[in-house]
Amino acid sequence: MTTEPAGPDRTQRAVNGVLLPGFEGTRVPDRLADAARAGLAGVVYFARNTPDVATTAALSAALHSASPDLLIAVDEEGGDVSRLEAVSGSSLPGAAALGAHPGGAAVSLDAGRALGRLLAATGIDLLLGPVLDVVSEPDNPVIGVRAFGTTPDDVTRHGTAFARGVRSAGVGVCGKHFPGHGATTVDSHVGLPVVDEPLDAVRARDLLPFARALRPEGRDAGQSVLDAVMTAHVLFPALGPAPASIEPAATRLLRELGHAGPIITDALDMGALRQLTGSVGEAAVRAVEAGADLLCLGLDPALYTESYDALSRAVAAGRLTVERLEESATRTQALVTALRDRRSAAGTATGVDAAKEALADLSEVGACIADAVVHVRGARLVPLPPEAEPDVVDLRTRLDHAAGRIARHVQAAVGAAWPGARMTPDEGGEMPGDGGGDAVAGELGPDEHGLAVLIARFSRYGVSADLDRVGTKRGAEFPGVGPRVASRSRPLVVITREPVPGSAERTRLERLWAVRPDLVVVHTGLPGPVDDWFGALSGGGPAVVVACGTGRANAVAAVERLRGPASSQDGEEQHSSEQ
């Protein structure tokens, strides 16, 4: 038996075999098709590839026609992070909503099953999820409601159930972000997070959901529910001097926990690695040296070229071997084969018609989940009348890079219910007086001047901080305010995400609360800290619609609470924000 020499063709295929790039558009670019035929491991879908499920199904068919062994992956967590429904917003509430559902892990299983059918119908092979991070830091800028909960037990229970549901439809799952992104206060899209805690503490909190998913007990004992694991651009000094995605000790730890499938990096063009390695190409080489099998890349075709060239140079210089790259490619191809067999056994339909039907089913499942979870905290909500023309002010200050933008699904749902609603910022992102103040770089929402304009607008209706906080009905007389003046006031709805005491978002909320004690909050962030964040405001705080995320299903359910349907008014307050 002869061994094939490490010539140009073999090296080309070996390098391609560890790359997982994105690409622009809804058609297969010629260059991508060439790479697919030359051993490209797979592709990652972004929102620009998936404007609707019919287009996605057709694109997947074209990609698999170019290379039947191509792995098609996507970030489709539901809730805040959606690619297949990026424009309209996700039909499925996110992980925080599932974790809060009184039905427990069985609901997460059903949600995963419904999402898996949609992924299978659109020809997608691998879900880059579930998120297995334990969100132990309330001020976490990137995980938040993407996590199933704040304890390892909750995350394990719901995360593994969700994974089983997805897998039952014939689709693979990739747990993320190993060893854990939940304790961070820095978003790895823009900087390098550090979790400087003892390894024992990390094991007991962050590693536990991964360990239990890889070696589950009960009916799945000995059989991992994860097909792949994604490493995080997070530095754990207790593990080693580099972020986990390029740290050999993190890879060794993951293998020790029992993971035998591919190890996938988070996107190598994220800020955490760019700042450290200086280039995506160098990050790619270091990730493979650390033991990664698949390297996620962004949309820009230059990222594929840079990574490919850097890996090729590393082979030529002896820094990497072809055999090392082929080892990773073999692991990925074993996964692809297993997924093809799983899809066949599941009998899940694929194609345009199947995708439309699966999306309708997912919407029904998601609406039921959102209706059970979205609730009102605090003072009894005074419903907005059908003829209202509310002011809607988005106080969120930080861009959710994982979601791709600050989602406006709450605004869209309010506008659909009350066409006269006035949005601030407007759709173009403009605030009253925007550009004249001291907004922090990288933040959104009103600057000081814009907030002052809003306060002046709202104050002239005569509602002030020394008046009663709750009226018996919208437009009710407050002490000292005549009905003619009070009736001129538009209802005020504010949207929050992280009103952490001392933050810019909190300051803006406090200033609006002082002049508009009748305001209502739609809170899209973590449900757990709601009592602490809002109850500490003077007078016990406003009525808060706890949406558990910004997906379309969450937003629609939040608007139903603002409408105050009879079915939800009698029992809202006993619905704890800790559920």
TrEMBL record:
Alphabetical keyword list: Glycosidase, Hydrolase
EC number: 3.2.1.52
UniProt key word Hydrolase: yes
One Pfam family per UniProt: Glyco_hydro_3
Domain (Glycoside hydrolase family 3 N-terminal): residue spans on this chain: 38-333
GO MF terms held by the record: beta-N-acetylhexosaminidase activity
EC primary class: hydrolase
Similarity remark: Belongs to the glycosyl hydrolase 3 family.
Protein name: Beta-N-acetylhexosaminidase
Organism, as annotated: Promicromonospora iranensis
